[in-house]
Amino acid sequence: MPPFSRRILLVTLEPIAKQMAGPAIRCVEIGKQLAKEHTVTIFSPYACKDAEVKELNNITNLTLACGINKSQLYKLAQEHDVIFVQANVLKPYPALAELDKYFVVDLYDPYLLAVLAQFSDDDASASASYRLMHKILERHMVKADFSICASEKQLDYWLGRFCALGRLTPELYAFDRSFRKIIDIVPFGLPETSPERTGPAMRGRVAGIEQSDFILLWGGGLWEWFDPLTVIKAVGLLANKHPQLKLYFMGFKSPNPQVPLMKMALKAKELANELGLTDKHVFFCDSWTPYEERVNYLLDADVAVSAHFDLPETRFSFRTRILDYLWAGLPVLTSTGDQLAELIEKKQAGIALPYEDAQAWANAIESLLLDSKRKAILAENSHKLSLEFQWNKVVKPLSDYCANPHHLPVYKKVKMPTLVERAKAVYSRGGKELISKRSAEIIKDFMRG
């Protein structure tokens, strides 16, 4: 395949900056991989500061288009062959799906399930937001020529949704019986290089955290579907016995100004205050740890943690923060219930724990604090597992599509067959004899329908 054979536009609604949330990180890292073989442009509606994206500006065949308006984006899209979108991009930019380009949709985040958790205490917002996002998601899935998701479990979920939409038709089955041409798996990925420290992080820098402390690290944000409360309670159970135990939260508020401060973040702080743990055993980064600096926090940690509730969002999630834990070779303590938790248990890279069981969490934390040999074994297995998720490996299905893109058979809304169509179908299976036997049933169904 000749180099730079396609022009690919990646569209995210997240800021591309020093501080980035998961979707922006994913978009940037995918763009860097595709730029090895194609010409890539990454769009964000937020203006970029050159000093914060210096590395990206120096990557051959990758260009940033940040902060341009809608008409400029549409003009830019006309110059590209493949358009890749995330989340609800077609809400602000609906014409991107009408340009007769190869249209790729990133479905790694089953965000409808997150909406249910986010607005569970607000009936008006829950109803309006769910219906709005449902219709936007449906438009993405109807318009997609190709989609990607993060895991085999997600693949089952999305195939179910495609089937319910009427996209898994006989025509599509004839086009590709595996359905991998409609959706394939591209999980979140990791760098090919090992993590290297670039500066200080928590030890000796954050007041209350010493060089000799045993640090639990919570990477990423505190969203409604996460359960930091159980981890904080577990630390409270151990604090008097193990004064060197510290828990650090890397993110408090999303770097995307459109994402409000979550109630769970406030609840976590309130609980830490109530238990007398704040700035003694539990610490919060009040903003968001810059992406390029996260490595220092990972390398400062002894154990990584991620807890969540027993929700549908959990079952189909793919916790991107956990991949960073594996990259740094950290033993992982996580709630059970999702595919990564199952994989971590299987590969003995950490421990999957029951939902909302503070005592079980306390026992697991203490076991690693006291047993350095076991901690080392889990750490080694964590590093080995990380090698399966390097970006250059996981992005292959998308790269293959971009090299040889296709349009799917035209989507047509499913309708009941006409009387003539039913008769033809019955005739094709059994001729006049079957038509004679089934005619009364066919007419009855037609009159009922």
Which short descriptors sum up this protein?
alpha/beta, single chain, Rossmann fold, 13 strands, 44% helix, 449 residues
Q: Mind explaining what this structure looks like?
A:
α8 (228-238) packs parallel to α9, α8 (228-238) crosses α14 and α12 packs across α15 (372-386). The chain has helices at 22-34, 54-57, 70-78, 111-118, 123-143, 152-165, 170-175, 228-238, 263-274, 294-300, 312-316, 320-327, 339-346, 358-370, 372-386, 391-394, 396-403, 419-448, and strands spanning 7-11, 39-44, 62-66, 82-86, 102-106, 146-149, 183-185, 214-218, 245-249, 282-284, 303-306, 332-335, 350-353. It has a seven-stranded parallel β-sheet, with helices on both faces. Strands 10-9-8-11-12-13 form a six-stranded parallel β-sheet, with helices on both faces. The protein has three domains: 7-189 and 393-403, Glycogen Phosphorylase B (Rossmann fold, 3-Layer(aba) Sandwich); 214-389, Glycogen Phosphorylase B (Rossmann fold, 3-Layer(aba) Sandwich); 417-442, no CATH class. The protein has 18 helices and 13 strands. The radius of gyration is 25 Å and the shape is globular.
Write the layout of secondary structure elements.
Elements: E1 7-11, H1 22-34, E2 39-44, H2 54-57, E3 62-66, H3 70-78, E4 82-86, E5 102-106, H4 111-118, H5 123-143, E6 146-149, H6 152-165, H7 170-175, E7 183-185, E8 214-218, H8 228-238, E9 245-249, H9 263-274, E10 282-284, H10 294-300, E11 303-306, H11 312-316, H12 320-327, E12 332-335, H13 339-346, E13 350-353, H14 358-370, H15 372-386, H16 391-394, H17 396-403, H18 419-448
Parallel strand pairs: 1-2, 1-4, 2-3, 4-5, 5-6, 6-7, 8-9, 8-11, 9-10, 11-12, 12-13
Helix pairs in contact: 4-5, 8-9, 8-14, 12-15
